Amino acid sequence: MSTKSAEKRERQNEKRRMRNRAAKSAIRTSVKKFKAAIEAGDKATAETTMQRSFKLIDTAANKGILHRNTASRTKSRLHAHFNKMNAASAQ
């Protein structure tokens, strides 16, 4: 880096990159916990982890970490898995 502004920009980019990575990691972890609860057939845990996942996904989409269509698609698929589990347990 040759200029002070370039060095500052590099620091800012690194900070933002780490923040974005942490947010995406939290989403992936939450989705994995949700899928594990679905596999186990635990409706209560699945519902709470689904709501947590939705909150994390919405927050990331609002901050520009995820595209809004990606967020919407992911939430739709999670909800479809939850509904499928509920339909299977109701029968």
TrEMBL record:
Family: Belongs to the bacterial ribosomal protein bS20 family.
Annotated keywords: Ribonucleoprotein, Ribosomal protein, RNA-binding, rRNA-binding
One MF annotation (Gene Ontology) recorded for this entry: small ribosomal subunit rRNA binding
Start and end residues of each stretch annotated as Disordered: 1-28
One CC-aspect GO term: cytosol
Protein origin, superkingdom: Bacteria
Skewed-composition ranges (Basic and acidic residues): 1-15
Any one GO BP annotation for this protein: translation
Transmembrane segments: none
Name of the featured protein: Small ribosomal subunit protein bS20
Gene: rpsT
Alphabetized HAMAP family for the sequence: Ribosomal_bS20
Classification via Pfam families: Ribosomal_S20p
InterPro entries: Ribosomal_bS20 (IPR002583), Ribosomal_bS20_sf (IPR036510)
Keyword Ribonucleoprotein among UniProt keywords: yes
Provenance organism: Parasphaerochaeta coccoides (strain ATCC BAA-1237 / DSM 17374 / SPN1) (Sphaerochaeta coccoides)
Task performed by this protein: Binds directly to 16S ribosomal RNA.
Signal peptide bounds: none
